[in-house]
Amino acid sequence: MNDAVEMDMTPMIDIVFNLLIFFMIVTDLQQKDLANLTLPIAYMAAEDKDNDPDDRVILNVDKYGQIMYRGRALNLDELGTVLRNQKDQYELKKKREGKGASGTVEIAPGVKASKLFVLLRADKDTPWQHVQWLMTIMAEQKLFKMQFATKKFMSGGGYAEGEAENLGGISAKEYQKLTGKEAR
What we know:
The protein is α/β, with parallel strands linked by helices. Helices cover 36% and strands 21% of the residues. The protein folds into two domains: 53-150, Nucleotidyltransferase, domain 5 (2-Layer Sandwich), CATH 3.30.420.270; 153-184, no CATH class.
């Protein structure tokens, strides 16, 4: 009786390929949320400490006013539909979590707004009118929590990614004189 025991590697290979496919898809979806934009510089920018990506929607606006959501161009009507759907999904998720969790907050007697955040990533050359239209659509959907993506001004007279010419010639020291605050 010389039976050699062999291990069947087929299930392990299947699992490895499934994991590989899963991570390739997840990585691709995360990259679609962020378009290649030149963000404006902000003196008082704070670091983004988002813990749950499901608690916000990321919108990108290029310098021509084109709205991008997850790599797809949207017009203003489509944006309203997308925001409504995202808000409804978020509120449903919060209800399922239970424990008093709610996806809305009362902002006035009888008026509720969603707790869902919208991260707006607009190119520094985007006309303000395009951002204003987005904010109007957000208000119609009762989405009032918004974050603006910016590049951080570097302290000590340094500029974000060498963009001194885009700050109108103001230095960190001049900013400190004008505001009484130190540039971060």
